[in-house]
Each structure stands twice: as C-alpha cells, then as structure tokens.
Amino acid sequence: MTRTDIEEAVTRLLTKNGSQGFTMDQVAAEAGVAKGTLYLHFKSKSELLESVKEASLAPLRDELETVLNADLAPQEKIEQLVARQLRYFDERRDLFRFLLEERQLAQLRRTRQQDSGYKRMLQRIKKVVEDGMRVGVFRKLDAVKVAAMLFEASIAVIGQRLWSESPGPWEEDARILVEVFVRGIAAETPQHERNR
Questions:
Q1: Cα separations (Å) of 173 from 39, 89, 98, 157?
Q2: What's the start-to-end Cα distance of the chain, in Å?
Q3: Buried-most residue among 35, 50, 143, 189 (CB within 10 A)?
C-alpha cells in the first residue's frame, strides 16, 4: 500500500460520499488497510487531505503549464487557462467541494497567496499579460495585479460553481470570465488590427 493508493482511496470515497462523515476509519475501509497503516504514511487527517489536494491539482497544473508553454497568442492563452480551470473543477465537483470546505477550515494556517504553486502560476500568467502588452493586444497596466485579478476571478467563479447545485455549463462561465477580463484589458484597437 503506497501513499498514492491511499490518496486514490480518499478520492473515491469523497467522490462517492462527499463530506458525509469523512473519517480515517472510512479511508482505511475504502483502502482495504488497517487504520494504523494510514498513520504510517500520514501523520494526521489534515496531512492526508493536503496530500490528496496536491495530487488532485497536479494534473491541472500540468495542463496549465502546457498552455503557458504553447505557441499561442496572449489572448488565446488567457482563454485556454480560464477554460481548462473551469472544466477541470467542474468534472471533479464532489471532491473539490469537500476539499474547499476543508481548506476554509484550515485557512488559519496559511493564505493562498503564500503557496509556492500559487506564486509560480501567478508569475507565469504575469508573463502572458506582459507578452500581450508587448505585442499591443493588452493595455499597459500593472501585469502583477492583472495576473492576480485573473487568477483570483477564476478561483471565485470555481468556488461559486462548486457551491451551486446547478451551476450550468462551465463553458458559459469561462466565456463570460474571458469576455469581461480580456475586453477589460484589451487595447482599444489591437496592434495586429492597426497594422492591417
């Protein structure tokens, strides 16, 4: 039994049952191990949940890195970043609803802005914004603040969708977010259109 096997058991359990009575006993039963075995790998329930969260977010981070490294125009990168985040969380609603609830309870330990993954992603989005400014499709603004606003707006929409019983299609929220955000920072007449 590895840490990964236990994390997968937690994910199955949370996907099936949500937060209904989530306990280490239930995790042990789902994983098919003794409760003591869990504690060989994880010191506490909170450590286990943090590990599950990190493992659950790793594929999304990989997707976002792929977009950030792609040969796309800045506006297309923003559109892809927003779409992929909303789709990813929509497909895993039950798991992330529970993790969001747990995260809010544990928020006293640290803020999102202190997280190294958050900081790294913010720097990557900042570069996309700067690229857009450099080629004239985005207005000259403080790229750090613009990146933070986009990332936080995406997180806010994801949170709203996770708590909503009928959030509607993720594509619609992605379109609205991109439209409001990109049109808000778009140059009045994009450089590439002025050069025609």
A1: 41, 12, 21, 8
A2: 62
A3: 143
Q: Could you read off the pLDDT of 8-37 as tens digits, one per residue?
A: 888 888 777 766 657 889 889 888 989 998
Q: 1-42 architecture in CATH?
A: Orthogonal Bundle (1.10)
Give the span between the Cα atoms of 41 and 58, in whole angstroms: 19
Spatial distance between the Cα atoms of 69 and 137, rounded to a whole number of angstroms: 19
Alpha helices in 42-190 (DSSP H): 45-69, 74-91, 93-106, 116-134, 143-163, 170-185
CATH class of 56-194: mainly alpha
Q: What are the φ/ψ torsions at residue 73 (nearest 5 degrees)?
A: -65, 150
Helix, strand or coil for residue 73?
coil
pTM score: 0.73
Q: Where are the domains of the chain?
A: 1-42, 56-194
Q: Of 139, 135, 121, 142, which is closest to residue 68 (Cα–Cα)?
A: 121
Q: How far apart are CA 109 and CA 73, in angstroms?
A: 38
Rounded to 5 degrees, what angle do the CA atoms 115, 117, 122 make? 95
For Cα atoms 68, 74, 77, give the angle at the middle one, nearest 5 degrees.
45
